[in-house]
Amino acid sequence: METSMARPLKVAPSGYGTAFSLATNGTLTTLASFNYANGGYPQAGLIQGTDGNLYGHTFEGGASGYGTVFSLTTNGTLTTLFRFDSTNGSSPAAALVQGTDGYLYGTTSSGGAGGQGTAFRITTTGILTTLLWFDGLNGADPEAALVQASDGNFYGTTASGRHGLQPFRRRRRWHHFPAHRDGPSHC
């Protein structure tokens, strides 16, 4: 049986994914189970913040079904920090990264004002700021993690857009630098 979104219907209690720890001897411990209300289908890895907590997101679930950002203690306390509602992005697919400023940065693969994904910043307490909307002309469908380079800027790619795979660079102030057909912008 499939849902209207063409995903197999999960009937197990933790059918929307889990977060786990794995000891070096192979012992697996389930830390948290997702139930769609708190998120569903986490697709990217967790990161450990400078505060010791783990952070991640889910591709779906939450109040509107568009995904969540969560924190997780190493003892298994799961806290939903933010629920996407499509206007601010949906379906985050790439791992979060913690910037040198302490904020968490990430992308959503769709949603936002341009409909083609977003780049966002979120505090470890759940205050999200949408920094950039992709609209197809500046790229679309960012599905890979951002990286903060030694120059302080964040770099990333989009899976599609104006001329296919679009590399982009965002300064810490998140000014738009359009990508050129023959490669990244040189600013």
What does this protein structure show overall?
The protein has 187 residues and is mainly beta. The chain has a domain at 36-147: TolB, C-terminal domain (Neuraminidase, 6 Propeller), CATH 2.120.10.30. 0% of the residues lie in helices and 32% in strands. It has no helices and 13 strands. The strands form four sheets. A four-stranded antiparallel β-sheet has the order 3-4-5-6, with no helix packed on it. β11 and β12 (154-158) form a beta hairpin.
Descriptive terms for the model:
disordered C terminus, 4-stranded antiparallel sheet, disordered N terminus, mainly beta, Neuraminidase, 187 residues, 0% helix, single chain, globular
Q: What kind of sheet is the major sheet?
A: 4 strands, antiparallel
Q: Average the pLDDT over all residues and give the rounded result.
A: 83
Major sheet: arrangement of strands: 3-4-5-6
Shape: globular
| Rg | 17 Å
Task: Tally the helices.
Answer: 0
- How many beta-strand elements? 13
Quickly name the level 1 CATH class of the domain at 36-147: Mainly Beta
Share in β-strands: 25-35%
- Low-confidence blocks of residues: 1-14, 173-187
* CATH homologous superfamily caption of the domain at 36-147: TolB, C-terminal domain
Helix content: under 10%
Content-based structural category:
mainly beta
Kindly report how far apart the N and C termini lie.
52 Å
CATH level-3 fold name of the domain at 36-147? Neuraminidase
SSE order, one letter for each helix or strand: EEEEEEEEEEEEE
CATH architecture field of the domain at 36-147: 6 Propeller
